[in-house]
């Protein structure tokens, strides 16, 4: 039996090969309560809740990641390398950065650009492009189409800065075609690639940066059902 880490203490409870990973641990609890059967909790360290259950007969786990690349970097590294998880599907919210993307649209992150220095640890002699798993991406797009979701597939930005002092920051990324901004996927994709595992980010647009539109915190926690169902279908 795998021993726990300082951040994940399953105490004998199994963690599935596929883990859905929202940033908010309360969203993890929502998914477990509303979508999974035969649920058992495998982590409560630092209130970063993790649960294992079944969805349509498939074993799946769900766990919060916290905010930012340093946080998801820790949890995803341990899940991949200590607990032998094969696939992590990030489900989260993002801010739209293109005019044709609207509130509640689904963004599937083919790639994750970043202003983070997380990649520096690998000493790569150039600029590495963190990419999601292609097979997962294709399956996610198919599942989204079957649900009738409005989807966009492409590049997101995993930003280390929520409040940026540079007033041109968003404009520059907008010009480069970035669909939306979030804060975790690049770190997840790098950990997955280095470990030889799979990862994908699926997002609901919670606000529109160019149009100053936003959903409420309660809506972000409880109403992003299409994103959750897409992730569960491909788990």
UniProtKB/TrEMBL annotation:
Stored SUPFAM superfamilies: Purine and uridine phosphorylases
Enzyme class: transferase
Active site: 207
Sites annotated Important for catalytic activity: 220
Regions crossing the membrane: none
Reaction equation(s) it catalyzes: a purine D-ribonucleoside + phosphate = a purine nucleobase + alpha-D-ribose 1-phosphate; a purine 2'-deoxy-D-ribonucleoside + phosphate = a purine nucleobase + 2-deoxy-alpha-D-ribose 1-phosphate; uridine + phosphate = alpha-D-ribose 1-phosphate + uracil
GO terms of molecular function: purine-nucleoside phosphorylase activity; uridine phosphorylase activity
Keywords: Glycosyltransferase, Transferase
Nucleoside phosphorylase domain boundaries: 18-229
Highest taxon above the source species: Bacteria
GO biological process, one term: purine nucleoside metabolic process
Residues that, per the record, bind a purine D-ribonucleoside: 7, 182-184, 206-207
Entry GO CC: cytosol
InterPro entries attached to this UniProt entry: DeoD-type, Nucleoside_phosphorylase_CS, Nucleoside_phosphorylase_d, Nucleoside_phosphorylase_sf
EC nos: 2.4.2.1
Residues bound to phosphate: 23, 27, 46, 90-93
Subunit structure of this chain's protein: Homohexamer; trimer of homodimers.
Functional summary from the UniProt entry: Catalyzes the reversible phosphorolytic breakdown of the N-glycosidic bond in the beta-(deoxy)ribonucleoside molecules, with the formation of the corresponding free purine bases and pentose-1-phosphate.
HAMAP family: Pur_nucleosid_phosp (MF_01627)
Family statement drawn from the similarity comment of this UniProt entry: Belongs to the PNP/UDP phosphorylase family.
Name of the protein in question: Purine nucleoside phosphorylase DeoD-type
Organism expressing this protein natively: Staphylococcus carnosus
Gene designation: deoD
């Amino acid at each position: 039996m795998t021993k726990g880490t300082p951040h994940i203490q399953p105490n004998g409870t199994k963690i599935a090969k596929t883990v859905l990973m929202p940033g908010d641990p309360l969203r993890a609890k929502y998914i477990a309560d509303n979508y999974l059967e035969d649920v058992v909790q495998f982590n409560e360290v630092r209130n970063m809740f993790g649960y294992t259950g079944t969805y349509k007969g498939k074993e799946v786990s769900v766990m919060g990641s916290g905010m930012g690349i340093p946080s998801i970097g820790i949890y995803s590294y341990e899940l991949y390398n200590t607990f032998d998880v094969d696939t992590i599907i990030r489900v989260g919210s993002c801010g739209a950065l293109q005019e044709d993307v609207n509130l509640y649209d689904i963004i599937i992150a083919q790639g994750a650009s970043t202003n983070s220095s997380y990649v520096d640890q690998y000493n790569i002699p150039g600029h590495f492009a963190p990419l999601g798993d292609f097979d997962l991406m294709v399956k996610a797009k198919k599942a989204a189409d079957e649900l009738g979701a409005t989807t966009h597939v492409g590049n997101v930005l995993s930003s280390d800065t929520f409040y940026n002092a540079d007033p041109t920051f968003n404009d520059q990324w907008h010009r480069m075609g970035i669909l939306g901004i979030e804060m975790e996927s690049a770190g997840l994709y790098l950990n997955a690639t280095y470990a030889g595992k799979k990862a994908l980010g699926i997002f609901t647009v919670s606000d529109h940066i160019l149009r100053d539109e936003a959903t409420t915190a309660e809506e972000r926690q409880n109403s992003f059902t299409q994103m959750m169902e897409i992730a569960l279908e491909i788990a």
